[in-house]
Amino acid sequence: MKPRLADLLPTLRRLAADRRGVAALEFALIAPMLLILYMGGTEATLAVTLHRKLVDTAGTVSDLATHNNAVTKSELEGLANVARDIMRPYDVTALGLSVVGIDIAPSGQAKVVWSFARNAPAPARNSPFTLGSDFASLKDAFIVVTTARYAYQPLGGYGFTKPIDMAQVATFRARSKTGVRCDDC
């Protein structure tokens, strides 16, 4: 016996009026997007926090390097260890650090006097150094330029698929008129 449309009509009306599964269906459609948005926000927050630590690292190392008239390579190694401690709990093997002593002549020409690096490139001794626009007018001075670099590898890749390369440069003027020496750098 074939069902008639008139017999199915009350069943179809009941099905159309039933709203019990609508909330579950809406949640199933929205939940993946909300989860991706939440995880992407978490990744962005971690990256911003890491960059803030990078700013602190570069500034602290430059500040500490300019406290005395002279530093040694072992003291700069100690400053690199301080930088690693500032960056914790993040992966400190991804941290690159260079500390460079720059002498600026009365003519405004800047030259590298000494340099130290760990996991990063550093300019050669006696090579010219290009000052940023903030220091272009500085003459007859000694500065220490610290560059901290970090390649942040996102945890889950929620919108971030490649490492985020971050760099921060901190420039401090030497506290003494004679500058900061590093005889074994």
Automatic annotation (TrEMBL):
Domain of life from the UniProt record: Bacteria
Pfam hit, one: TadE
InterPro entries membership: TadE-like_dom
Transmembrane segments: 21-41
Domain spans labelled TadE-like: 21-58
Protein name (database record): Flp pilus assembly protein TadG
Keywords: Membrane, Transmembrane, Transmembrane helix
